[in-house]
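Fig. S4 source data, part A: sequence.
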Amino acid sequence: MTAGFVPPPYPYDRLDDLAVVAGRHEGGVVDLSIGTPVDPPLPAVVAALSSSGAERGYPPSIGTPDLRRAVQRWIGRRFDVDVPTDQIAACIGTKEFVGTLPQWLRLRSPDRDTVLHPAIAYPTYEMGAILAGCRAVPVPTTAAGVMDLAAIDPADAERALVLWVNSPSNPTGALDDLEAAAAWGRSHGVPVVSDECYVEFTWDGRGRTILESGLDGVLAVHSLSKRSNLAGVRVGFYAGDADLVAYLREVRKHVGMMVPGPAQAAGVIALDDDDHVVAQRDRYRRRLELMADVLGRWSGIDVPQPAGGFYLWFDAGDGWAFTRRLAADGGALVSPGEFYGAASAGYVRVAVVQPDEQLALVARRLGVA
């Protein structure tokens, strides 16, 4: 019998043994490995989850008119871009969108089989290609973290279903040149999908979207998970090219990909409120500065501030060795850079998502409080 696909270990499951080591400290493990928000969401959002009455029927897969209008208002307010509501659609968070998009694009363009993605990146870009039976081709980045589009082999461009961009980047925090990516895609007839889930946490300049370069040939993908501390509610959306949105919303309708009705109602409240996002920005900026100082003083390693996002990303020489040492000495769990591509094996990613008192606990354990 021929062996079929065997899923590889989920990256963060590889930290289970170190979680046991870190958990031996009094007060338990401080998990800085996954970007899971822990701060409270807006009370009005929580109230909307229980009061919408939307739990009784099937919600529209594309998103309710109220949700799509709220997205339209947010894009207009945040980026000064007008996107028609029929070029906006909901998704169940954004990870499922990232992981399934190559399947739907392959059905649409069966003569193409290649997914281009940043060489140092969120692993689901590669896994989505693998699950669709496609080729995942990493695109190198410059020292500044910008994708080196000139390095894409013309043969790969000919076969490309999609070019993924991610700005601010997970894990590096770098800001990419979204206008250049859009221009490359249009010149090569390749859809460009921009994962912008961390855009509200842009530290160098203002937040940017690929939609500022026009809607044709591009999609922007966003989530309320990070912006509004709603990872468990699973509300995301994509917006952009009219034909691509129309195609995807019909395919996804057949598959039954629907954001629950109460979650959509809560999403409207969250998108229309900016004050809670400002408060969350302040929290993450403070935590980034605190943990960069703590880890830098403890290890003697330069820990720079990111241009965006809520991750510290730095060269530790040996990412796994640093991860093991921090678990043992500080009771903190972080992610070795290998999770995000072979080119970053020496790096470490630290998600500053835990409350201030938990970060202070790590500092005390390391003797740098």
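Fig. S4 source data, part B ends here. The mean pLDDT is 97.
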